Amino acid sequence: MAHYALDDAWEQARRRLALLEQQLDPLTFQRLTALGVTTRWRCLEVGGGGGSVVRWLCRQVGATGHVTATDLSTLPRLRSTSISWSPW
After folding, report:
1. How far apart (Å, rounded) are the C-alpha atoms in residues 8 and 17?
2. What pLDDT was estimated at residue 79?
3. Are 50 and 82 in contact (CB under 8 A)?
4. Residue 57 · residue 45 · CB < 8 Å
């Protein structure tokens, strides 16, 4: 995506995502907990960013659940985490 203001190619992109996670994750996790996310759930994370919500969802749904994440530029970030991923 040419000219995307928040492009991951920006040298501070990972820091930007970390700051967003720091500010927004507590409320996100609170709301997801209130929804009752638990084992065996199937979840879709649109705009997965740095992956913190995806990791949290994976812990909640466990081996019997499923989490799918999408983002404009997912592969470089997910490769640097402990998330198991597939390009398909």
Report:
1. 10
2. 47
3. no
4. yes
- Name the region of 65 (left: φ>0; alpha: ψ -120 to 50; beta: rest): beta
Q: Which residue has the tokens 């907990």?
A: 33
β-partners of residue 45 are: 69
Q: How many CB atoms lie within 10 A of CB 77?
A: 21
Residues 6 or more apart whose CB falls under 8 angstroms from that of 33 comprise none
Asked whether the beta carbons of 38 and 59 are under 8 A apart, the reply is no
Report pTM.
0.74
CB-based contacts of 57, cutoff 8 Å, min separation 6: 32, 37, 41, 43, 45, 67
| Spatial separation of the C-alpha atoms in residues 68 and 24, rounded to whole Å | 20
> Which of the pair, 73 or 33, is modelled with greater confidence?
33
Query: φ, ψ for residue 10 (rounded to 5)?
Result: -60, 135
